[in-house]
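Appendix B. One record, verbatim.
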Amino acid sequence: QITTLINHKDKPKRSDKTLQAIQRVGQAVNLAVGRFVTVGEAIANENHELKEEMSVACIEARRAGETIAQLTDVASLDHPESDSHITIFTDKTGVVKAARLLLSSVTKVLVLADRIVIKQIITSRNKVLATMEQLEKVSSFQEFVQIFSQFGNEMVEFAHLTGDRQNDLKDEKKKARMAASRAVLEKCTMMLLTASKTCLRHPDCESARINKDGVFHRMRLALEQVIEIVTDSRPNGENEMAPISIYSSIKEFKIKVEGLRENLYFLSKENLSTMLEVILEHTEDFTDSAYTSHEHREHILELSKQAKMELEQLVSVWMQAQNQKTKDLMEDLEVAILKTCQCMNELKREVHSAATSLAADLLKYHTDHMVLKALKITGVEGNLEAAAEYTCKLSEQKEQLVEMCRLLRHVSGTEPLEITCIHAEDTFQVTGPQIISAAETLALHPSSKIAKENLEVFCEAWESQLSDMSLLLREINDVFEGRRGEKRVYLSLPRPGKHNANLKALKPVKLDTEEQAKIAKLGLELHLLTSDVDSETEKWEDQENEIVQHGQGMSSMAYSMYLFTRGEGLLKTTQDLFHQAEIFATEGTKLASALHALSDQVHDDDKPLLLLEAEKLISMCKQLQIAAKASAQGKSATFTKVDACILKTRNVMTLLCQLLPLCCKLLRKNKAGNGCLKSAPPWKEDRIRTGTNARTPERRVDTFGIKSLENHVTNMTFLESK
């Protein structure tokens, strides 16, 4: 609205309609500022240390809003220029100044509100830490129950505050770190309860004390990490060391190599050689691993050797091209660039195969949880010798799983998935010894119900992490195979806490169970269509074809919309769905453009049919965009809009199922015929589909979620009353 006013063009003649429109915009800005400032003032009254700064910023914003309203009060003036009343037409500079003041003061209010949120989280963390110290020192059961009830309530508050903050974070890497830390805190809350109770029941047991100390230590680390993320700082001013993976290193290396096409002098050959050396050093994690198969190890070593040779050839041609830029040399350089990149793609494919096949085998082998079951049995029997034997086996299993996580991190494909792998590695590393200490305690006290319950809790955490690894492996494969791309960023609106109760806001809503049931059939049809489209795209020889990539992107988005009808997936609210529908329609329009481009290459007989289908697609996508942007107030109207968006998406997917085989057929026909389509040069890079394809939307990685902690507190109180 402000931009509309600033960019308003001065015209000699102004209609009443124009004057009224300008006035409406000015009034709308002023009203919006008024609502915003009301929230800011309410927050200021609750936080005295920032009250003065917040009040000043709110006053500035209100004044600027009123100035804009006055300068745009032109609807009733027939000849604004001749009147003494100053308006946007006589003083446009005044509007610009007011707009600048407004934007700076609104920004100040937001920054101050953010500082308050950060302070709330730090205060909540400090409360939790203080209560944890009390819990560590208690010696009586009754005292522990009282303090733990307080601790549980404080953890609930901390979980809510950090959950809101996690949703507000724009950086997906920070989001993943926050999710990992909160998951640790959630699981450790129950562990802390049983470990502390076991220690109180068996105060002289060394293994019980070690078990409890491990939980407290891990919780403190997780609390510290949350504060690091929230305040964007590191202890002692340290810089965060980003984990380096083979995937990201190869991606960066290829960007540099391909950059030689545009500029032969932007980096040195030493830089490029160093980058390759770093990549090959990382491959040693695979070749040195005892769990990498002989076949994978040999292939990785061969490709590493080939990569060195390809780079040597590239550098040789590159140096010649710098001295003499002839056509032949530039063609040789292009061939060298493509060969180098193709070799790196093959290396990436090989390490991915090595990591994921190892992970799949290990997860399958450990699904029966035989070692955990044996530890529980030997503990209850009090068989210390057998318990020691199985703790050794668990230690071996832990080493295997930790190595699996390290290798998966190299091929994870995105920073959030890398962080998830690191979190999984830490979890196995820490939980393994904790299970062992809990098992030792039970073996020493086989009749202790609390020691048995404690071991169960730690075993459940191990099993839960193994289950998470199966999901993580699927996510990593999705990225590698191009079924996922860049993340969508969800920007949450500033929340004024309890003060928004009297302010009307458009709240994104979820479908309830009844609505999900009504739309289930339509969702299922959409799911089947995505499978059909995926089958059709897999039939194409050239997976880099623009039509295929658009088709894959649309299929991925449609699948997310199907998951929404089941109450699953990353589309959490109706607003998310409508936004996704708009992006889907835009992708469809891009596909139509690709079809038009293809029509210029096919035979004249085939051209009309292709153009007709392209026009159909454009029309359907426009209808979907209109439906997604339509206003909907109330529950019934919102559901009708959801239904319309899903229905129109299904129609587009139905057309896409017909289009893909048609295009594939036309391409083959031309290729086999008189060569109307230019064939690719034999040295064309055989690129694989990767998760960096920005066209395809990503199902957000949200492997870890905080469950409500109220249950822990309630269950604890109930158990102790028994």
